Amino acid sequence: MKQTLTVNLGDRSYPIYIGLDLFSQPGLIKSHVKSAQVMVVTNVTVGPLYLERVVQQLGGLKVRTLVLPDGEQFKNLATEERIFDALMEYRFGRNSTLIALGGGVIGDLVGFAAACFQRGIDYIQIPTTLLAQVDSSVGGKTGVNHPGGKNMIGAFYQPNCVIADTSVLNTLEQRELSAGIAEVVKYGLIRDREFFDWLEKNMELLLTRDPQALAFAIHRCCLNKARVVSEDELESGVRATLNLGHTFGHAIEAGMGYGRYLHGEAVAIGMCQAAHLSYATGRLEQAEVDRIIRLLQSAKLPVKPPAEMDADRFLEIMTVDKKNIDGAIRLILLDEIGTATLPCGVDQPQLEATLNDYGRS
Amino acid sequence: MKQTLTVNLGDRSYPIYIGLDLFSQPGLIKSHVKSAQVMVVTNVTVGPLYLERVVQQLGGLKVRTLVLPDGEQFKNLATEERIFDALMEYRFGRNSTLIALGGGVIGDLVGFAAACFQRGIDYIQIPTTLLAQVDSSVGGKTGVNHPGGKNMIGAFYQPNCVIADTSVLNTLEQRELSAGIAEVVKYGLIRDREFFDWLEKNMELLLTRDPQALAFAIHRCCLNKARVVSEDELESGVRATLNLGHTFGHAIEAGMGYGRYLHGEAVAIGMCQAAHLSYATGRLEQAEVDRIIRLLQSAKLPVKPPAEMDADRFLEIMTVDKKNIDGAIRLILLDEIGTATLPCGVDQPQLEATLNDYGRS
């Protein structure tokens, strides 16, 4: 069974397919390749499991493959150059297609390579982690990290399609599954209270990879994301709410060294910090903060900031963030579970208090 | 006196200003800066001459400067990273502006940095070479070279405005002036026969930097370029004609090592090769080929391919070009002076014959 959603962006609209065994569905991937030259880019973890199966679906095309190292610490311009080198070596032209087979790191690297190579070629997202399926593969945010800040170099560039084969989640490490659930919870927090309630009741099913529960959650997240992106592709408004917890989270990822915390883990902590600050600034009830922390804990996610990072270190990194204006930190906060604010300036002493107090006992 | 043209691209439209002493015109640059943070990026040749004057015009803003090495051999991702590093070091946010003060290399590097930093910030083009004033600063083509091919990594990304101060051409080296004239001649060849006739009569005035002749030529080129870009921003059609001679020329630049031939010099040779091939394929009269070669020679430009590069070397590099489809070489040719073809497939033996025969005696 296959569900289809659409990201509506005029002549750049594209489908998201969600379902079991989509890799093996004859013609599905190939029907979205408009060129003779194709390169499938994956990593050393995903490649041995699924690369051959994807390549088999591309019979008749000139297919090349590239296997990159695995991990957030490789999401940088140096790895990007390896993709460009391979494209040049195999003489790829403007009329060619990249396929990103992997998690969020592969998707971001490959999408940005597609955006830049010959000023833009086609690409397809085949996300293989829960996090990538529910969040990063949809919406066209691509790019790499700078040592000083996450996702600082990139482009908005939409794929031809997104193919989320939920069977691959069976081979996902438990830690990666939990990291994906962090972004799942995010959708409940920012715009879907009913879904948050559902998550409270069904977390155990997600953690044990119940196919129906996973399919429901992935579809629900993609539906939310597709609507937000269709409404505000370039993040001039509502799309920014998708960054709940991310300014804190990015600081943890950069501050601790990329790869130490998974993105979803850092975001889980960041959402707790954002919830605490929302309470401290009179927006959110204490009881709702507790519900948020409890739900993330039940997903086996960390909820406390790393002891190694004090408030100063957080602030140092948080002053470089894409939502800031002229260096003033702006954050997404919560009015209640299911309702997020747009980026708003925060009182520095209150922010410092949250950084010093929350999760430090 | 200041002339103003407009590149019409809906809500991304922008003005091109052409005239004497525009750097000193109070408020002109600053009126196009919409942010508090500004970084002026230039190179070691242009910086000592004009950086201070530009910075003076930005009083009241938070201004940073970055001085890069000079030359096509530095138009790569490594230099791009130096711009990103500086932006991060000075904590530039999404709400900031880059100013490109220099020739085509600086403009392409800075434009691409603006396209990618935080997924897109503002930038302004202040071209200081004839080539950049008549061609590369207008139209939003940005990017860097790959060792295997010119401009292989980049983006279409439009500036806030282009400020072409013609007084700066007085400090331009003669070789750079001639290189710029190659692109000037190109506009005559592809779409402005009347201008080509004018150039035949007035080349001496351009070479001696007669202000009126230069102003006329720059305005005429920008007018042509603005019209082409307004019609076809992403090069799906007529914009490709601006690449006359460039596939040959890029092969010379990459094949001889970036920086050895100036871009305009390589394009001059390439346009002669394209003219020869246009004649060989029954498009262009021999007499018109001769006029083209004579005009470029009168501009002190090289017109023969480097002896070091044989036909095989040309073909090896030319098979990687943005106009190609599935590896088949496509070129812009001339039907007559003033009329160019769209990219068209060429008969391989005829192309080889031109590469072997033209300019080899």
Structural notes for this entry:
The structure is a homodimer of 361-residue chains. Chain A has 361 residues and is α/β, with parallel strands linked by helices. Chain A has two domains: 2-171, Rossmann fold; 174-357, Up-down Bundle (Dehydroquinate synthase-like, alpha domain), CATH 1.20.1090. The first copy, chain A, is built from twelve helices and 13 strands. Chain A has helices at 47-56, 77-89, 104-116, 130-136, 174-191, 193-207, 211-231, 246-256, 263-280, 286-298, 311-318, 348-357; strands at residues 2-7, 14-19, 37-43, 62-68, 96-102, 122-127, 141-146, 149-156, 162-165, 330-331, 334-336, 339-340, 344-345. In chain A, the strands form five sheets. The first copy, chain A, has a four-stranded parallel beta sheet, with helices on both faces. The longest helix of chain A is centred in the middle third of the chain and has 21 residues, at 211-231. Chains A and B meet through helix 2, strand 7 and strand 8 of A and helix 2, strand 7 and strand 8 of B.
